Amino acid sequence: MFLDVLRRRNSGLIEAAIHLHQEKKLPANSYVIDTDTVERNAGTLRETADRHGLKIFAMTKQMGRNGDFCAAVRRGGITESVAVDMECARATHRAGLTLGHLGHLVQVPRAEAAAAARMKPRYWTVFNDEKAGEAVEALRAADHDGQLLARIQAEGDTFYRGHEGGFPAADIVAVAERIERLGKGRFAGITTFPAQLFDPATRSIRPTHNTETLRRAADALAAAGRKDIEINAPGTTSSVMIPALADVGATQCEPGHGLTGTTPLHALEDLPEAPAVVYLSEVSHLHGGRAYCFGGGLYIDPVFPDYDVKAVVSREPTTAQTAQRSVEIPPPAAIDYYGMIDASGPAAPRVGDSVVFGFRAQAFVTRAYVVGISGLASGSPQVQTIHDAYGRPIDWPEW
To answer: Among 290, 293, 263, 289, which residue's Cα sits nearest to residue 275?
Structure first.
């Protein structure tokens, strides 16, 4: 879905990935990130958030918490991360981002609360009284004045399956009072997810019922005399959506795919953020009229209905339409050892060809490498550090 956008707006990334792969400087099964473009995208998002008075935290899980990606985000002006889980917190902390928000989407496990507190998160989300107690106890031991956000929910709210949970929104005033009675951990505000979603029917981003739940809870807190309430409303964030977040009262935004120009809206419109990531593979073998390319990172975030997945297959750096071929991706129930490329017609794929995809990635749930490259504009792209999908540099003797 994003391959055509890449060909139009960042063709150099496709060509550089093929060139560096054929030079044996990039391995197959790699998400390849144009960190110069990420830096510019981060700058656009930062400027927009500042203009509308929103705090901004970078979601890095989509790019596997890659250290060079995090450094580019920081150079672009976003200095804090939102950690989806403790692995994310450790990786972004290690990469030099301070921890802006922790505990949402995934609560902090009890045995790791002390480690979380030592990283001094600015905001810590809790779903219930028990988790609030664990957070406050850990913050007290770390001598850190943390700020707690309450994840809230009400009838009619939207959740991805397995993401449900939170305090009843109707009880938010009492929840705030209970949290503050715990001591070391000020009640700071409220959060939900997703606050906005891509609607395939209208091909637009629409607020969910969760946004109305946030508004009603904020009104209740204000009526109880609470001021300066933080409202965290993540979901499908790009610079063009930040004004809408400000309009519904949000005080925080958390771009993830916006940093790489891969929100659903980026596939349909040319937004300010340019596409900045490809998935790179390599033809392994031929069988039965198909070319098999290495998998490992062939998880395509399913925000669009099924579509004909295509890839550029070539040994020469190119973005030509004639180099594109359809690829069958194994279903989610199967392990993606290989993708299967249509090998019919002229110029059939050969073993060793580079295979470059453009799709919406979630690197952290894969077993792919994640690699930053820089210098595309100079014509001499350079490979940065190669990381695994958990944001850890890998051992590679020659690189």
So the answer is: 263
Cβ distance 73 to 56 under 8 Å? no
Distance CA 373, CA 277 (A): 10
Please tell me whether residues 184 and 239 are part of one structural domain: yes
Q: Which residue, among 108, 107, 111, 49, has the nearest Cα to 80 in the 3D structure?
A: 49
In a domain, 265, yes or no: no
Per the listing, tokens 């919406």 go with 360
Q: Kindly state whether residues 81 and 230 are assigned to the same domain.
A: yes
**More confident position, 183 or 113:** 113
Domain end call among 190, 223, 256:
256
Q: What is the pLDDT of residues 117-141, one digit of tens each?
A: 999 999 999 999 999 999 999 999 9
Query: C-alpha angle with apex 145: 143 to 150, nearest 5 degrees?
Result: 130
Nearest alpha carbon to residue 63 among 44, 81, 48, 40: 81
CATH number at residue 379: 2.40.37.30
CA-based torsion, 112, 113, 115, 121: positive or negative:
positive
> Residue 17 is which amino acid?
A
In sequence order, the β-bridge partners of residue 117 are none
Top pLDDT among 235 and 99 is at 99
Separation between Cα atoms, residue 296 and residue 23, nearest integer Å: 21
Q: Has residue 397 got a pLDDT over 60?
A: no
Three-state SS string over 278-317 comes to: EEEEEEEEEECCEEEEECCCCCCCCCCCCCCCEEEEECCC
